Structures are given as structure tokens and as C-alpha cells.
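Model it.
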Amino acid sequence: MKIVVLAGGLSPERNVSLSSGCKVCAALRERGHEAALIDMYLGTEGDPLALFAAPIPEELTKIGREAPDLAAVKASRPVDGNSQFGPGVLEICGMADVVFLGLHGTCGEDGRVQAAFDLMGIPYTGSGCLGSAVAMDKDLTKRLAEPFLERLGVPTPQWELVRYRAEDIPALAARLDLPCVVKPSASGSSIGVSIAHDRGELAAALAQCLDFGGVCVVEQYIAGREIQVGILEDKALPSIEIIPKTGFYDYENKYQPGAAEEITPAPIPAEWERRLGEAALAVFHALGLSVYSRADFIVTEDGTPWFLEINTLPGMTPTSLLPQEAAAVGIGYGELCERIIEASLAVRRAEK
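Modeled.
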């Protein structure tokens, strides 16, 4: 097949996306496909067909310790304009048999690209526009998933969506319960996430989230084991436990090799594994997702799984979790990419 791997974009998760895209593109070429890696925001130039054989930049596979400088990315763009699609992007996507979405974060994982491609008749991987939009919003995800999880006896931490300005922070920091987790409401890769144990930390966390629009979810902190469950083709994959060597599973610990221990299958009782898989599938269905995803949980000492959030375009970087879970059941990286494509094409055909 002729496949465009769409990555990059203008998101704080840009570098993660480019790393995912490089690995996916290389794997698809190894499987005999014509694959082109395209940066959605910067776009392309020259003969688009030549891009299907262009070298994959090795430097893009590495992810720095901090999120990218998006102002610098904007300044490096070869053309002016407000479109999130760079020059030539829609044209080359229209030439492909399918677009593999290696995008992460806003304007990639939030349903807007999916909606544009639906209107243009361009097939793409993963969930559709509506499910993607809902899953990207941490508040909406919890509101829709909570009734389904309650039936399974799976709680989600108490939370509050707060919209605020700098002058509101002192009152919020005095009112909100501690300890808590402060998260931008529509971001991923733990960018902007803080754990607050006292009022000073809470005020600092809220101030940091102003950089993400001043809309965040303040969530009850649950102490326990961090375990995630991938879904592939409507089935739960083996769970994976994440044990950071320092701190919590933040941006740096996620993408720096060796920063966290990742064990799959997670060393948990079979009953815990069953409940986690059922809960992940319940959220997947409640939000109307398709093809694949990854759900995040905290499991307490008594075995109770607490649902946190779900990701519709899980990372495919060299350190990402979903490929490790797939490998635990004998699905290699290249096969995983192909299965995502085939399942996605079936969903897109059914949606017409």
C-alpha cells in the first residue's frame, strides 16, 4: 500500500509524535509498503512521490527531556498562514491508500484532523472524530465513562473542572482538596501535570496550567500502582506496570530510556487483570472508540482499579507501552502497524 505517516504538527507533544512517526514509517517500509513521513505543520516541498522513498531522519527518533518550543517551530515554517496543515500535506494525504496518524495531542488526537479527513474522503487510522474529541477532554471522558465503570465496581478519582485566570489562583489553592493531581484538560504525555501535596504546590501547579489555557482538571490523588491496558481490535492486551525510578510518570520519565521500569504482563493476580481489561473495554465502548487505544489506571493495595483516562492514539515510540503489550502476545511492531491499518480501513468502510 501507499501510506502517509502523518506526524509532528503544532502540539506540545510534537517531538513524541515525530518519534512515533519515524518508527512507524520504517516498520511499514520493512513490511514492503511505500511509506512517507510527513510533518503536518511544516508540510512538504518538491515531488510528493519522492517522499515515499526519502530517508527517515534519524535525529527525529530521539525525544528531548522537555517539550518543544512551539514559537520556534512556528518561526521555522516556510510559509505564512494559520492553517494547521502545511503546504502540500492534504495533497499527498489524498494520494495515499491510508494515512497512519502518528499525531499526539491537540489538533491531531482531538478529532479535528479526523473530521477534516472524513469530509475529504481520506481514510485514516484509529478512532473517528467524535470519539477522539471526547477522549481528549479529560472531564468529558470521566462524565461519560463513570456510569459504565460503576456497574463494574471500578471508581474514578473525584475531580473538578476549573476555568480560571491568574487572579483566581489564591482562592482555588485555598479551596481545593489535597493531595490532588492538576492536569490540563486537553493534553497528553503528562505535559503540564503536577501532583500537589500542599497549598504552595497547588498554587504553582495552577499557575503552570495557565500556559495551557487556564482550563484544567483537579483530581483526587490516589496512591497505588500505575498500570495501563491497551485495546487492540476490541480486545484487551496484557496490562503493563510502570515504575518510575524517580518522581511520577511525567514527560521525562515516559520518553527517556531507562527512566522507568515497565513490566508486561504486569505482575498482578489474574482477577485484577480481568477487571482492568473489562474496565478498559467499558470506557472504549462508552466513548465510541475504535481500532485501538490505551487506558490508564491506578490500582490500590486491595486490588481496586481506579480509572484515570484513555488515549486514542497511543505512542509508538521506541519506549512506548502499547507495542510492548502487543509483543507480550506475540504481535511484533510491524505486524501491529499493519493490524491497526487493516482494522482502521474496515471501520472507515463501515462508516460510509
